[in-house]
Amino acid sequence: MNSDSQTAPHVMRNICVLGSTGSIGVNTLNVVRQYPDLFSIKALTAHSQVNLLVEQCAEFHPELVVVGSAAAAQELEKLLINKQLKTQVLYGPSALVTAATLESVNTVMAAIVGAAGLLPTIEAANTGKRILLANKEALVMSGDIFMKAIAKSGAELLPIDSEHNAIYQCLPDANTSNAGARGAYTQLGVKEVLLTASGGPFRTTALSELALVTPDQACAHPNWVMGRKISVDSATMMNKGLELIEAYYLFGLAAKHIQVLIHPQSVIHSMVRYVDGSVIAQLGQPDMKTPIAYGLAWPHRIDAGVKELDFMSLKGLSFEEVDEGRFPCIGLAYDALAAGGLMPTALNAANEVAVQAFLDGQLKFTDIAFLVEKSLDRAQLANLEKADSLEMVLQADIESRQIAQRILKDF
Ligand code: NAD
Ligand code: MG
User: Fold this and answer.
1) Model pTM above 0.85
2) What is the residue extent of each domain of the chain?
């Protein structure tokens, strides 16, 4: 969060997209495509969607492309040769770090889903790149360590999650370098931030029917088109729990200064309430190209290719309190944050296991929260008070997954 660049002319953004075949990755390329003079793609990564990756290489000509396995790399190399493309191909977790820390890259879109995105994102932070953070799980897992890496290297961190991007836009002096230091915004008159949530596809579903909902129903979000993991998180509202923790670290606010509010229309993307009675909100279409373009062009603004918000066609904006009986994951996230240390890491790990099991048909929707709760009860017995190093974070992630897997076997 560097103030010098506010008055600087547009700097060429040389970009690595981590997770280029996903919903955020594809939307990032949709924005990049419109501005060849401002943005250049240097590296792309994806887990297994080789065919889409080849198309992306043919269009954007990156230096390096990374996939998840040797088999995928072999297949990709063949397809690239067929198209006479000279992109270098690497695979595996350490190659993700290579892509994110390339000398030629100054901007990293962190859009891998889940814990797999942590290492390349934190190494990009260590090497002072501009980080466009969509991969909230990385920050939830490693909170203080991640923020210290940003502060130490002087990297710019721009939130892409729509709520945090909205809050970033509504905060005072968001561009001053220590604005995100713990408590700094409170001193600047911020009373609280209001994270809005749509409530997902099951906001009004009869509670008795929730146990029977299918993965496809859970992934059919009423307002946003997203990857399957975050879609399930939105349906359980664990997404808002992860976002609460994300806001805690990004903006240095106490948990009591972060409120969650259901706003089913997803027009207000989040708000900041000030001590003088003002509330500043950011509004827009539910289209991730807006926060992506904001992060890419910051501190300037560019046309994101998003339809204008038409106030005359809005049928009204409504708000509701969160029903924690319906959405127990929110309470679990508040508890993990209050417990501190590595409990947010354990929460994220257990949730990733539970969501995958639900998507694989091994777990009922209503058992996601139950599995996370049981896993956290057991994790509490482990030594999770301190998160002093990245190694401890990675170890806690592994152990918490093992705990959740063992509990899953009893379902
Ligand atoms: P997605 O499932 O559509 O895409 C995920 C990407 O990560 C894909 O490119 C995939 O190849 C890659 N990937 C998956 N597992 C991997 C692994 N083990 N190693 C390397 N790469 C791997 O997900 P998405 O909806 O684009 O979300 C990406 C991230 O952005 C998530 O953390 C999500 O919470 C966050 N986010 C998404 C949205 C949205 O609108 N989609 C909004 C806010 C935040
Ligand atoms: Mg969000």
Assistant:
1) yes
2) 13-159, 164-204+215-285+308-322, 340-411
